[in-house]
């Protein structure tokens, strides 16, 4: 997937009277090797998360419960997306600014990442991000 890109992926699932079972298999369903797994939950009302981009990291966001919005910026175009289904994941490439906001009560999101945590890999200043997008074109 090119830098600054995103796409939705269907999460395989099975629903029966007991509920929904969703599953992913690393080499089959995930477009990168999983090196870290983390989650976001119990977000206070009005709180925003993200506000950064990654230099090399790919991520897959799976909204497990509730909903939230994600604003994406590739340096030229902004997209405002609703994440509200555990059967629809969002794959983000590197060099893509993200802001997560408007979390519903009880929202929870699982994130699969292609690399372990590395603070040096983050771009936390939007102007630095815009310069990086210009350099990558």
From TrEMBL:
**Top-level lineage group:** Bacteria
Transmembrane segments in this chain: where?
A: none
Show where the Sugar 3,4-ketoisomerase QdtA cupin domain sits: 7-133
Q: Which CDD domains match?
A: cupin_QdtA-like
**InterPro entries, from UniProt?**
QdtA_cupin_dom, RmlC-like_jellyroll, RmlC_Cupin_sf
- Its recorded name reads WxcM domain-containing protein
This protein's species is Chondromyces crocatus
């Amino acid at each position: 997937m090119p830098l600054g890109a995103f796409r939705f992926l269907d999460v395989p699932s099975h629903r029966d009277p007991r509920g929904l079972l969703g599953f992913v298999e690393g080499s089959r369903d995930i477009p990168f090797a999983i090196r870290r797994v983390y989650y976001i939950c119990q977000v206070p009302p009005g709180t925003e998360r993200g506000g950064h981009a990654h230099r090399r990291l790919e991520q897959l966001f799976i909204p497990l419960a509730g909903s939230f919005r994600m604003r994406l910026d590739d340096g030229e175009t902004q997209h405002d997306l609703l994440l509200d289904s555990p059967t629809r994941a969002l794959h983000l490439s590197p060099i893509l600014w993200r802001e997560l906001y408007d979390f519903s009560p009880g929202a929870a999101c699982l994130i699969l990442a292609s690399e372990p945590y590395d603070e040096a890999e983050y771009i936390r200043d939007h102007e630095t991000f815009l310069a990086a997008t210009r350099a990558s074109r």
